[in-house]
């Protein structure tokens, strides 16, 4: 059987997962097309703006798909086929479930941001922790999604338009997108960005088939990483946005305020993550197909260089530039909404209304000042902290969704199982990681991770049904 069949099977798995498991998840949640959404009941012309479903879906995809589903899968490809399995299985049973509940619970809680959602389901202490956690993550995301696209744009433009030039341009765009009504810039530019994104994803896929490349020419179980770094927990931290990402929980509420009908949630939130999983699958496949060995991929000079080299080689000069611009569109369209979500999260924290421009500027200016300072920190350091914070937030959001279902007497295991797994992953990672963690041996770290996950599961089953003080009645949501 030719190796490209494995790619086709993976794509088919994502599609089937959306059709079958996505419908199961929506049914368990209880989406109600007759229930008014915040876009209708709280319209303000700034953040609560009803838009057509196709536009909401496209904005959701571009919001969540930063460099993660490109850079992460390229780095994850070093580990071999386990990366592909995590992208497909993780997307269907963890990432898309996470995105669906972070979006639909926001709809039920009147467009609330993730700290409020967590607080209503896990308690006030979790809410306060999540507030700080979410703002820090959003700032890290905003900074990460400035440096990466600026570096790629610098490769396409004359020398005087160096990386710092593009950093300034991107920051200026982010600032405008953060303070202006969501339909003025984001709603108008994203269809254009989406077209470039589709050219990138489809173009790279088609040219891999037509170029005569041997798919997965060195992929083998169990582990092909040149340094034999452990698959668990590193693959599950490295490939975040292509399979499961806590950052998405900060983005889904932006579109929960624009959704016209609860039944659209499956396509927008679950389907948006499946589309991102496909992008991750494409770039993991590129890494395992274009290069002759994992050593060659590791020596390519990092994900940005891999994108530049493979896009030009597979799609030619013009097509390659379009593919690179598609990759640029991903982080740019996540960075702008990261800063916007940070503004809204802080505003919600202090009950600071955002309908007037001066009120928006009062929050936007300080967070952008911090973002500019963080831009001068080493990118690799920022990325490591982003990776851990991202997956830890995903685990917390999944626990919150599980608690919601548990108290509603519905099948909570669709959230509880991935929440338990990701708790083990995050705990093991922070124990193992030598530069930002405790530097333990991998076996010790894994044992601690499993024990921590088991403790959290037992505590959840014992305590999750208790009502949360100050939260809306579970019957109302």
How many helix segments? 18
- DSSP strand (E) fraction? under 5%
First and last CA, distance:
50 Å
- Series of secondary-structure elements, N-terminal to C-terminal: HHHHHHHHHHHHHHHHHH
How many extended strands?
A: 0
- Rg measurement, Å: 21 Å
Low-confidence stretches: none
Helicity range: over 70%
Shape: globular
Structural class by helix and strand composition: mainly alpha
Largest sheet: none
Mean pLDDT: 91
Q: What does the model show?
A:
The relative contact order is 0.18. It is built from 18 helices and no strands. Helix 3 crosses helix 14 (303-349), helix 5 (81-108) crosses helix 16 and helix 9 packs parallel to helix 12. With 477 residues, the protein is mainly alpha-helical. The protein has a domain at 3-34 and 52-104 and 135-382. The mean pLDDT is 91. This is Carbon starvation protein A. It is a multi-pass membrane protein. Residues 7-148, 161-312 form the CstA N-terminal domain. Keywords: Cell membrane, Membrane, Transmembrane, Transmembrane helix.
